């Protein structure tokens, strides 16, 4: 093997590619001209329409699946969906959720089935709105709304209690505690077979 | 003694006091307007709308800012030199107002039954006085940096002093041509000397040099190295808060307005209307000239804002190189040319000689530029040149390039 063979050979194709890879365009324009071009950019921008959204007056609607503040949902007869299982709290990477479960009793039926949440708190100073709690929730009790104006001026105000998070009562709903729909169990609730409150549920309240 | 100076000389004492007060009020009001204007204009350049909360269209934002600054806690660091620390912003703010004393803001006007000019005083060395006043302002910055007892302010203060001193030389040199043309250093005479043509046209290179150096002088973008936020926190005023900081803030803006006003006086004919448009003393003269003055000042102020909105900050060494190796030599050469031309015309040299000289200068400049360009190009080519490596004396594996060839 001679020294001659070891020398790198440069083919025409490689030479061509090398010459093409050097950016030649724009080199011809003088630097002064380029600078003036920049001045024109800023000057002409002055007469364009600003992109600003005048926020407090004008509110842009969020995307439908925007991660806003949470909501604790209800079944159609008003019973809460939350069963106090704490899976949301366990899923939370920011440790923002605190749940204390409690047994449902005869006179204190808050949700269908055995358990309900006695305490349910979300600390919005910690929440990162990742939505893992929503994914963890087995009964779709916890979902997120599109509401994003949560800012406040006191730390205490940013720990939202269960009352703050609960969905409002809609038509046909009754404020718990009240007994479950006659002849139903938590499976019927879960399958969505309960469409509205039964009159007997109110009577026995 | 010029006509201007003699009009000002018979001012009664009460008028001088009132004028002094008016100058002060005008500076403060212009500062308020300038802060608002700058924020609005820069915002529009960035597709924003700028302040729009306080007052109609956000017009009271600078006032609200001032109140906010005044109500903030005033902190003096333990390591600070108390007296100098308090003195520094005072020096800074006081000196920039001084420059306004010799700026003519109107033509001849009637003021409470007294013919006068809206100018505090007209001294024979007026422009030098402005230079002196602005350079004393540097003390404010340097002392602020030093007395803070902290590293970043010190670095910012030192940078600033180096910067202002460097650019003051170029600034002073750009005045020389104006002095030669007007035959005087008094601002009033210089304004009168521009009744035919503005100096900005006749002495265009001087004008350009002045405009560049006035940006350097006032520590504004792209030359705002003294308070480069990314590098020096806040620069010399890092440790300042409350009213003392407000004084620096005020000083910066009054300084900008002062250099703009000086540029107006020296290069754009001061408060007089643009020549050649038929504006006379009787038609839109008098107090109306104040509008011309303000318009011209705003023009320069807009330039400041435009620069800020367009250019990124220079690197320190580039900035210094530009000042010392470009601005100063160029202005010295320009002065030589102007002086020669002036001498030739005054001694009644023939038109041919003047034209020959001018042509010669243009030729030399063109040759120098082309030589410079070609040498730059050659240097670039040399930098791009990669020498061919000699064949190694020991066996080495073939380079990947050889392999590419095989594939093809």
What would you say this structure looks like, in words?
- The complex is a heterodimer of chains A (205) and B (408).
- With 205 residues, chain A is an alpha+beta fold.
- Chain A has helices spanning 3-6, 12-21, 31-45, 87-91, 132-136, 162-165, 186-190, 199-203, and strands spanning 70-72, 97-103, 115-123, 142-144, 159-160.
- Chain A has a domain at 70-203: Alpha-Beta Plaits (2-Layer Sandwich), CATH 3.30.70.3270.
- Chain A contains eight helices and five strands, in the order H-H-H-E-H-E-E-H-E-E-H-H-H.
- In chain A, the strands form two sheets. A three-stranded antiparallel sheet of chain A has the order 2-3-5. A two-stranded antiparallel sheet of chain A has the order 1-4.
- The model of chain A has no long low-confidence stretch (mean pLDDT 85).
- Chain B has one domain.
- Chain B is 67% helix and 1% strand.
- Chain B is built from 15 helices and two strands.
- In chain B, strand 1 (108-110) and strand 2 (115-117) form a beta hairpin.
What is the oligomer described by this structure? heterodimer
Major sheet description of chain B: 2 strands, antiparallel
The secondary-structure element order of chain B is HHHHEEHHHHHHHHHHH
Rounded average pLDDT of chain A: 85
Helicity level of chain A: 25-40%
Shape of chain A: elongated
Residue windows where pLDDT falls under 50 for at least 5 positions of chain B:
none
- The class by helix and strand makeup of chain A works out as alpha+beta
Strand order of the largest sheet of chain A: 2-3-5
Total strand segments of chain B: 2
**What would CATH call the architecture of the domain at 70-203 in chain A?**
2-Layer Sandwich
What is the percentage of strand-forming residues of chain A?
Answer: 5-15%
**What is the count of helical runs of chain A?**
8
Uncertain residue segments of chain A? none
Mean pLDDT level of chain B: 84
CATH class of the domain at 70-203 in chain A: Alpha Beta
Which fold name corresponds to the CATH topology of the domain at 70-203 in chain A? Answer: Alpha-Beta Plaits
Please report which band the strand proportion of chain B falls in: under 5%, 5-15%, 15-25%, 25-35%, 35-45% or over 45%: under 5%
Our measurement of the CA-to-CA distance between the termini of chain B, rounded to an integer number of angstroms, reads 88 Å
How many separate helices of chain B? 15
């Amino acid at each position: 093997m001679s020294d001659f063979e070891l020398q790198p050979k440069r083919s025409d194709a490689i030479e061509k590619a090398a010459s093409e890879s050097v950016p030649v365009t724009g080199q011809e324009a003088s630097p002064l001209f380029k600078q003036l071009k920049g001045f024109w950019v800023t000057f002409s921008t002055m007469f364009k329409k600003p992109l600003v959204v005048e926020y407090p007056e004008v509110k842009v609607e969020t995307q439908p699946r925007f991660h806003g503040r949470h909501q604790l949902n209800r079944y159609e007869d008003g019973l809460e969906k939350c069963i106090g299982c704490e899976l949301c709290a366990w899923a939370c990477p920011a440790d923002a959720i605190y749940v204390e479960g409690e047994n449902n009793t005869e006179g204190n039926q808050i949700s269908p089935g055995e358990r309900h949440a006695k305490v349910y708190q979300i600390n919005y100073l910690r929440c990162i709105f990742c939505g893992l709690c929503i994914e963890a929730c087995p009964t779709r009790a916890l979902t997120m709304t599109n509401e994003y104006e949560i800012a406040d001026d006191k730390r205490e105000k940013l720990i939202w209690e269960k009352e703050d998070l609960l969905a409002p009562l809609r038509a046909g709903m009754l404020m718990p505690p009240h007994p479950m729909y006659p002849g139903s169990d938590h499976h019927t609730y879960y399958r969505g077979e309960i469409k509205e409150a039964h009159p007997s549920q109110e009577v026995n309240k | 003694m010029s006509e201007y100076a003699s009009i000002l000389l018979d001012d009664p004492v009460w008028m001088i006091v009132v004028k002094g007060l008016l100058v002060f009020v005008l500076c403060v009001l212009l500062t308020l307007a300038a802060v608002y204007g700058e924020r609005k204009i820069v915002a529009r350049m960035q597709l924003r709308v700028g302040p729009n909360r306080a007052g109609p269209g956000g017009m009271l934002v600078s006032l609200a800012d001032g109140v906010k600054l005044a109500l903030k806690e005033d902190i003096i660091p333990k390591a600070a030199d108390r007296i100098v620390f308090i003195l520094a912003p005072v020096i800074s703010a006081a000196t920039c107002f001084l420059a306004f004393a010799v700026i003519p803001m109107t033509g001849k006007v009637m003021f409470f039954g007294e013919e006068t000019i809206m100018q505090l005083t007209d001294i024979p060395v007026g422009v030098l006085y402005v230079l002196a006043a602005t350079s004393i302002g540097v003390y404010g910055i340097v002392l602020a940096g030093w007395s803070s007892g902290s590293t970043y302010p010190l670095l910012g203060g030192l940078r600033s002093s180096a910067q202002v001193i460097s650019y003051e030389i170029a600034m002073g040199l750009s005045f020389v041509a104006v002095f030669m043309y007007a035959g005087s250093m008094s601002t009033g005479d210089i304004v009168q000397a521009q009744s035919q043509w503005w100096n900005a046209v006749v002495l265009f290179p001087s004008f350009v040099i002045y405009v560049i150096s006035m940006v350097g002088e006032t520590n504004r973008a792209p030359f705002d190295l003294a308070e480069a936020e990314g590098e020096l926190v806040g620069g010399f005023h890092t440790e300042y808060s409350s009213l003392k900081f407000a004084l620096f803030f005020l000083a910066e803006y009054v300084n900008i307005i002062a250099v703009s006003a000086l540029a107006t006086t020296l290069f754009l004919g001061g408060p007089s209307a643009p020549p050649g448009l038929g504006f006379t003393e009787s038609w839109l003269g008098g107090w109306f000239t104040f509008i011309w003055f303000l318009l011209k000042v705003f023009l320069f102020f807009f330039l400041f804002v435009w620069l800020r909105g367009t250019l990124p900050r220079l690197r320190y060494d580039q900035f210094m190189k530009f000042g010392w190796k470009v601005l100063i030599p160029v202005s010295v050469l320009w002065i030589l040319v102007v002086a020669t031309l002036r001498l030739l015309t005054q001694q009644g040299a023939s038109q041919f000689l003047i034209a020959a000289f001018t042509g010669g200068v243009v030729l030399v400049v063109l040759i120098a530029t082309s030589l410079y360009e070609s040498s730059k190009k050659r240097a670039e080519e040399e930098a791009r040149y990669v020498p061919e490596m000699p064949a190694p004396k020991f066996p080495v594996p073939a380079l990947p390039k050889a392999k590419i060839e095989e594939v093809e």
